[in-house]
Amino acid sequence: MRGMLKRNLSIYFRDKTAVFFSLFGALLIIVLYALFLGDTMTDSIQMDINGAFIMNSWVMGGLIAAATMTTGMGAYGVMVNDESNKNYRDFYTSPVKKSKIIGAYMLNSIAIGVIMTLVTFALAEIYIVANEGELLTTEQALKVIGVILLTVLSSSSIVGFVCTFLRSSQAFSGCSILIGASIGFLVGAYVPIGHLPDTVQKVMSFLPCTHSAALLRQIMTETAIETGMKDYPAEFIQGFREELGIIIKIGDTKCTPGIHLAFIIGSAVLFYLLSLIRITFFKKTK
User: Which residues touch 115 (CB under 8 Å, ≥6 apart)?
Assistant: First the structure.
């Protein structure tokens, strides 16, 4: 299994196109925010506060959540290519157990997702500090890393299940572009969740990536909101957080960190099992 994992990682990082498309969603968010959305969102905060620090922290939280999905997706390109080139036949005739081969693909996605998302996190912090912001405290940074690890597990499981239905490199590329382009909307990076229709908000409240983005934003905007809005009433700050999707509600229930984690961990387990069942069944019937 270690040999398979090393092989998969080597193939991924040799393919510069795969690495680029892995970060496509995150890069798209950065470009749109820097060129078009940043000033608009900052100016929309009509208060005497450091709007740039708050909004930069907010959008970077969504960016990190998006990166976990797109980087995990890119890593599965190795599996799809092996499927397309029939390489799996050689693997399954080898002494290596099928479960270990499947596990190597999933671990490859998780490893790449963690590495690339941590790089994204570091770049996000640099961007925030370079634009009137502050670094996270050590405790906050560790919390973000913890959320990243869990979110990568969830995202890897979800996109892994999607990739079990893809049988060609062309289909994989198309799906990667689709996910990369849409993930910004799903994490509320382009339009704050509070600005969307109620029906859309209800749907998004059940998406694991929405809960990941909310958790990351709660941590990353904590200092910015506390210092910038310390003189504002609690009710106002509560509404502000809800409008930006920092706080998520399901019906009238405010989601606690425990609920967010339940969605993230639950989706990781569910889609891991679905992927395992799907791959095992598919190979047996092919």
Answer: none
* Rounded distance between C-alpha atoms, residue 42 and residue 111, angstroms: 35
Mean pLDDT, residues 179-200: 86
- List the structure tokens of 216: 């990351």
pTM of structure = 0.87
What are the distances in angstroms from CA 177 to CA 20, 27, 170, 183, 189? 11, 12, 11, 10, 17
The span from the CA of 266 to the CA of 279, in Å, is: 20
- Cβ count within 10 A of residue 255: 18
Question: What are the structural domain ranges in the chain?
Answer: 2-285
- Residues 190 and 168: their CA atoms lie apart, in Å, by 31
Q: What is the pLDDT of residues 11-59, one digit of tens each?
A: 777 777 767 766 766 777 777 766 666 555 555 555 556 678 888 899 8
